[in-house]
Amino acid sequence: MARENKAEEGQPNRLKSTEDFIILESAYQEIANTVGRRPAESGGILLGSREDFVVQKFVFDHKGSMSAGAYDPNTEFLNKVVKKEWNENKLAFLGFLHSHPRGLSRLSGDWGGNVGDIGYMKAILKAIPDLKKFLVPIIFSPADGGELTFFPYIAYPGREENYFTGNLKLIKDKDYVPASSEQNKNEYRLNISRLQGSVDPELMRRAKVVCVGVGGANGICESLVRSGLGKIVLIDFDRVDGSNLVTQGYYMEDIGKLKVDAVRERIRRINPAVQVEVLAGDFTTVDDETMDHIMYGTDLLLMMTDNFHAQAHGNIIGLKYQVPTVFAMMYERARGAEIGFMIPGITPACHRCVTSSRYAAYLNEGYTNDVTSTGSTNFHTGYLNNCIGLLSLAILHKETSGLEFSQWFGAQWDQNQIILRTSPFFESKSFGSLTQKDERMVSFDAIWHHIEPDVQPKYKQCPDCGGLGDLRDAFLHHQSIKSE
Ligand SMILES: [Zn+2]
Ligand SMILES: [Zn+2]
């Protein structure tokens, strides 16, 4: 759009996106034949279904004004096209594409009065509240020399400045299965009638869960989807190897695949309508903008890695974005396991308060964990997963009433460390003192420990949440520490 001459040096792919930008070959060809044959700036609109945001058609704006350094869309013409395409082909407006001069790969800013790419996009999103997502790609045209370069940008309403680069995928027209076709509607709707009274189907369909570490935890992801979960983000850099078949529920055909890809395939076989995003990378190195995108609208963060540093980072992220977070850990020989959780506004202590002695060991005493999950079986993994899954449903339903998973937690729920016993040989002071006089208590039981926030004079103040007793204040505390 207008005034591209502002300095904005190209920094493509600032985000490692987990979201696909899918376009049919015919639409891509149309772009190449129109915008791709003219010098910058020219453009047009992208059309398709708002159920899947796959670009099915591109209409070139041949009436838009093209001056050097600016493209101004002809809104009257484009409005007519949008109306016609909807009436005749049931194709909806998904966004706009335009070309920039080579080197200017970023969208221009928000200069007020619908000026600048971002300002224009804001105006459109305001005018069409139904549009939950916006496609706003930029191309470099071969007419300006070089090859056609496509920057598949995606934006969300209210966060236009945080637009990000999607994964561009071209698909053949004949391979495209419309998300809204009647035949698919029947297939796509998971029948969860058996869960009546247990979960709220609409709440589950709208809920978003981020799972970091999908090794053993793939079973949690799968069961959450079977419970009607609508959105999930999978983060793990690991690939499936032969040893994972024994304890993590993978299959031979998964060996060599990224774990996130294997789990995504499995989820799609349960319910293809679930929105799955994957990030095959290290959670601790995700940049701020990508994290904003991942955590936006997240209802629950599951920290399912056995890496101390990843778990510690998960605590800070959970506090920063004010998202309930669950942490799991298997003890030696899998005779016991631990589930810690924090819910801002409900639990007074964060994960760091719960496990401050472990933090001290790692950070001050140079401790490295030599406790491996060796000795655990798929039964142990499943046992731990199922407890985490039930806890997850309770956290997701914490504000509901009348359902099986409603109201598990009181207003100030301070018992947020759960110890599970999976063997009679588990040595634990807690279980010992509680059950030593009762021979009937052998195994498969759990203790929910009361955890106080770490605050002076009793403890050293928790550096993550400040030990304030209200995790909603934690991030303010965190920022003030940083800025000191
Ligand atoms: Zn522009
Ligand atoms: Zn804390």
Write the layout of secondary structure elements.
Layout: E1 20-24, H1 25-33, E2 43-48, E3 55-60, E4 65-67, E5 70-72, H2 75-89, E6 92-99, H3 117-127, E7 134-135, E8 138-140, E9 149-151, E10 153-155, E11 164-165, E12 167-171, H4 182-188, H5 201-206, E13 208-212, H6 218-226, E14 231-235, H7 244-247, H8 259-270, E15 275-279, H9 288-295, E16 300-303, H10 308-321, E17 325-330, E18 336-342, H11 351-354, H12 356-363, H13 378-396, E19 417-421, H14 429-435, E20 446-449, H15 474-483
Parallel strand pairs: 1-12, 6-8, 13-14, 13-16, 14-15, 16-17
Antiparallel strand pairs: 2-3, 2-6, 4-5, 7-10, 8-9, 10-11, 17-18, 18-19, 19-20
One zinc ion binds next to helix 11.
